[in-house]
Design goal:
single chain, 9 helices, binds 3,4-dihydroxybenzoic acid, binds fe (iii) ion
Length: about 280
């Protein structure tokens, strides 16, 4: 039986790609951010996962406004990055795990999560940069299954629905007969708003409460509607839905092996958590 051994939740910001390309990891602006990943990399080196399920939101690379699935999942043998217009080098292709993907799809659709299945799928900075932070040599030692949640075009799935998606993913992984060690990576958030009158909006109190809630009361954020989450965390801060879905995969109780929070990275409050299921 495959096993979810941990969850990692992190922000994603295109400027990280530029910082990596220019080797700015020790630069005073970037150091508090990059240093946050050292303990997570150490844990990964020991935990040796086989597969990473990446919960992320696409930003217009694979899906555009004309076709916007609420939930989509990759079932491809490999996933490539492509130019998103940031001028940042693309990363090497990721190996997929089509057999596991199809099992997850069967299980999730069986549980009435009607995902869009993608036998070809380009992955954007929300996949590539967190992966590059976890494996800086970019020699990916894992296969990936990307799962995309719409946070770009209204209406978005509710926080409760995303949490339940995570729970359903956990059941799907548990019923896979292989003995893969699986890490779930949720990328996005925390509070940020890139446009409009509140551009630059960050809400540290909310972010810290949200991070705490993942340990003490994981469905706490599901009390809020999408509009309330936008109000509290900003238009793009609603990417925290990925964190909720990731937390949903980890069961009733978790412990935080590591956490980091740093303001700002570009326009974003950057958060990082390494969670281990304990029950
Ligand atoms: C920024 C943050 C994001 O989540 C994103 O997708 C693009 C840009 C930023 O803070 O610059
Ligand atoms: Fe984003």
């Amino acid at each position: 039986m495959a096993k979810i051994i941990g969850g990692i939740t992190t922000s994603h910001v295109p400027a990280i790609g530029r910082a990596i390309a220019k080797n700015l990891q020790q630069d005073p602006y970037w150091k508090p951010f990059f240093d946050g990943f050292v303990p997570v990399r150490k844990w990964l080196a020991e935990a040796k996962p086989d597969v990473v399920i990446v919960l992320y939101n696409d930003h217009g690379l694979n899906f555009f406004l004309d076709k916007m699935p609420t939930f989509a999942i990759g079932a491809a043998p490999e996933y490539r990055n492509a130019d998103e217009g940031w001028g940042i080098p693309t990363v090497p292709a990721f190996r997929g795990d089509a057999a596991l993907s199809w099992h997850l799809i069967e299980s999730l659709v069986g549980e009435e999560f009607d995902l869009t299945t993608c036998q070809e799928m380009k992955v954007d900075h929300a996949v590539t940069l967190p992966m590059a932070l976890l494996w800086p040599d970019q020699q990916w030692p894992v296969r990936i299954v990307p799962v995309c949640i719409n946070t770009v075009q209204a209406p978005l799935p509710s926080a409760a629905r995303c949490y339940k998606l995570g729970q359903a993913l956990a059941r799907a992984v548990a019923s896979w007969p292989g003995n893969e060690r699986v890490v779930v990576l949720g990328t996005g958030g925390l509070s940020h708003q890139l446009d409009g009158e509140r551009a630059g909006f960050i809400n540290k109190d909310f972010d810290l409460s949200f991070m705490d809630s993942l340990l003490t009361d994981p469905t706490w954020a599901t009390q809020h509607s999408t509009h309330q989450l936008v109000e509290l965390a900003g238009t793009q801060g609603v990417e925290l839905l990925m964190w909720l879905a990731a937390r949903g995969t980890l069961g009733a109780q978790v412990q935080a092996l590591h956490r980091n929070y740093h303001i700002p990275i570009s326009n974003t409050a950057s958060g990082l958590m390494l969670l281990e299921p304990t029950a």
